[in-house]
Amino acid sequence: TKIMLGTFSPQQQPYTYMMAEEVTPSGIFARGTYSARSKVKLLVN
């Protein structure tokens, strides 16, 4: 699943985003590779 969060302007409180839990297959269907990738860019002046 790919989700685009968009752009956010600076603020004092951190942004939080709660995503729905996903269920991965089990048993014979669990074979394969599962991966997750996230990127956080922090801009500090």
From TrEMBL:
One of its GO terms (cellular component) is membrane. Signal peptide: none annotated. It holds the Pfam family Rho_GDI. Keywords: Cytoplasm. Its main location: cytoplasm. It comes from the Eukaryota. GO terms for molecular function: Rho GDP-dissociation inhibitor activity. It is found in: Cytoplasm. This is Uncharacterized protein.
